[in-house]
Amino acid sequence: MSETIEPRKIVIDLKKLIVEPYTRKKEVKLSELKDYCAYPEDAEKILAKGEDPVIYEYYEYTPTEKPGNINFGLTIIYPGKIGKEYYMTKGHFHEKDAAEFYFCLKGKGLLLMQNKLGEVATIELEPGSLGYVPPGWGHRTINTGRGKFVFFFAYPSDAGHDYMLVKEKGFAKIVIEEAKTVKIIDNPRYQKLSQ
Predict the structure, then answer these.
(1) Residue 104's CB: how many other CB atoms inside 10 A?
(2) 88: which strand partners?
(3) Verdict on whether the full-model pTM lies above 0.85
(4) Can the peptide bond before residue 21 be classed as cis, meaning omega within 30 degrees of 0?
(5) CA 193 to CA 195: how far, in whole Å?
(6) In whole angstroms, what is the distance from residue 52 CA to residue 108 CA?
(7) Pairing of strands 100-106, 149-156
(8) Which of 38, 114, 120, 180 is least enclosed, having the fewest CB within 10 Å?
């Protein structure tokens, strides 16, 4: 029996910052993100105070995971830092060779990308700009501004997500604030993907 998907209207509400309807909503708190940080001890200090802030959330519309369809939604990354490291998403590689894009609607941030050879690229995002992630590139977004960083994303429904690779190996670069300036530096915890 084949799955039938009906055409439908989806509303991107820029005042509420949600996609309606959505099929998936997730809030990611510091306790869930700490193992993705370059300095997990900074996260532990915050958590030890009894604080567990929401770092980011997303609303996603997934019609199906069958090939030929598109998943899309909104991500909101809140402003803040874990030690010197800016609030960010976990980051992931796709399980299949699949592209993704991020269209910035509000705030400012960075799209950090890395391929499996360790090559790194960054794109600054501000309202009206789009960051394109080619197939084979892992990616994470970072809020480098003082307000919410909000973007629209879309990717093939059957792309899949590999978060464990990022959790275990990290990205080669991290984004920190130093002397009130955004800096991209080497990640002290990075392990080359070939290891």
Answers:
(1) 22
(2) 142
(3) yes
(4) yes
(5) 5
(6) 23
(7) antiparallel
(8) 180
Given pLDDT bands bounded at 50, 70 and 90, which one contains residue 4? confident
Instruction: Let me know: does 85 contact 187? Beta carbons within 8 Å.
Output: no
Q: Which amino acid is at 170?
A: G
Give 13-48 pLDDT, tens digit per residue.
Answer: 999 999 999 999 999 999 999 999 999 999 999 999
Residue 129 DSSP SS3: coil
Return d(Cα 69, Cα 122) in angstroms, integer.
Answer: 27
Give tens-digit pLDDT for 137-147. 999 999 999 99
Domains delineated in the chain: 11-186 (2.60.120.10)
pLDDT band at 59 (very low <50, low <70, confident <90, very high): very high
Please give the Cα distance from 141 to 33 (Å, whole number): 13
Where would I find the H helices in 83-171?
164-169
Nearest to 87 by CA among 22, 23, 182: 182
Residue in the block written with tokens 């997934």: 62
CA angle 189/171/28 to nearest 5° reads: 95
Output phi, psi for 120, to 5 deg: -120, 140
Helix (H) / strand (E) containing 42? helix 40-48
